[in-house]
Design goal:
The complex is a heterodimer of chains A (110) and B (116). A 5-stranded mixed sheet of chain A has the order 1-9-8-3-4, with no helix packed on it. Chain A has a 4-stranded antiparallel sheet with strand order 2-7-6-5, with no helix packed on it. Chain A has no helices and 9 strands. Chain B has no helices and 11 strands. In chain B, strands 2, 4, 5, 6, 9, 10 and 11 form a 7-stranded mixed sheet that branches. The mean pLDDT of chain B is 94. Classes of the chains: A mainly beta (110), B mainly beta (116). At the A-B interface, strand 4 of A face strand 4, strand 5, strand 9 and strand 10 of B.
């Protein structure tokens, strides 16, 4: 499984946009890019996924570099409820085995 | 619509004992995966069940075994417990799509297992 590299932690102010980066230089052509987040005392929660094109949903946006070696999860207006560990994951098989790294701890300040 | 439910929420066992954890998938889902999450780390894939068979397995010893029932619910069994088995055990469910692909995973809140 291709590896991802994320910053250990990031901090944001409430109601400001947050850009969470992820590097995946060894990504293969068939790897999907998934983002999950884990709120305190809960299981991970799906945020968004993509293959080649940028993606938007009600939770976030995913910007994928043209060479696919990096991606950025964008939270448009961070709230205190967005404080969580964010995981960037590559998977050759959408919805199958996910290999989680340590993720990025996002802290949101009021 | 209930999501993924796991039981029990907490469990304390001693070394050498055996434990069974249970998972009911989200309504309409047919695939169940189990993950182990040690403190401060990301979840690690244990195995996945579909059509009552183990389909994929992570790097876990044979002490970890599972089962899926006709109603898609699942059990995780761990034999000969070690102190290092203390962790949060997460169940995730999904629905098989075409050609082996599955929809996004929905996770339960997990079972916290402590081995003393």
């Amino acid at each position: 499984d291709a590896k991802t590299t994320q910053p250990n932690s990031m901090e944001s102010n409430e109601e400001e946009p947050v850009h969470l980066p992820c590097n995946h230089s060894t990504i293969s052509g068939t790897d999907y890019i998934h983002w999950y987040r884990q709120l305190p005392s809960q299981g991970p929660e799906y945020v968004i996924h993509g293959l080649t094109s940028n993606v938007n949903n009600r939770m976030a946006s995913l910007a994928i570099a043209e060479d696919r070696k990096s991606s950025t999860l964008i939270l448009h207006r961070a709230t205190l409820r967005d404080a969580a560990v964010y995981y960037c994951i590559l998977s050759r098989e959408y919805g199958n085995k996910l290999v989680f790294g340590a993720g990025t701890i996002l802290r949101v300040k009021s | 619509d209930a999501g993924v439910t796991q039981s029990p929420t907490h469990l304390i066992k001693t070394r050498g004992q055996q434990v069974t954890l249970r998972c009911s998938p989200k309504s309409g889902h047919d695939t169940v995966s189990w993950y182990q999450q040690a403190l401060g780390q990301g979840p690690q894939f244990i195995f996945q069940y579909y059509e009552e068979e183990e389909r994929q397995r992570g790097n876990f010893p044979d002490r970890f075994s599972g089962h899926q029932f006709p109603n898609y619910s699942s059990e995780l069994n761990v034999n000969a417990l070690l102190l290092g088995d203390s962790a949060l055990y997460l169940c995730a469910s999904s629905l098989q799509l075409n050609r082996g692909q599955r929809e996004k995973l929905f996770f339960g809140s997990g079972t916290q297992l402590s081995v003393l």
